[in-house]
Amino acid sequence: MLWRQRFVVNQWGYELLGGLVEPSEDPATTAAREAEEESGWRPVGPPEHLTTFQPLPGIVDAQVDVYLWRDAEQVGQPSDPDETGRLEWVALDRVPDLVRSGQLLGAGTVIALLHYLTMRDS
To answer: What is the mean pLDDT of residues 72-87?
Structure first.
């Protein structure tokens, strides 16, 4: 995840990697591209689609597609100059505490991680 500041809410916290789907891309391609740009790690193998959701359907159409890769290879340093922060591998057992303490930023991060934990434990 990235540890970064989001200036709109004036808060530091963790976010999953991700970004906007380009007109010519499918969401899984976008997820892989953004992961590599923001982290320097390229996902390896086929993606696993975890979920799709609308975080604020009464206000904006902002579909979020969540994908999981179980392997990645480091191909360099982050290449996206607009993404600032610290890249950190965060243990899944920390997620509940990060949710409780408000250190996970954005609905996409919270929903994706809690959904994954629920699926993994069932």
So the answer is: 85
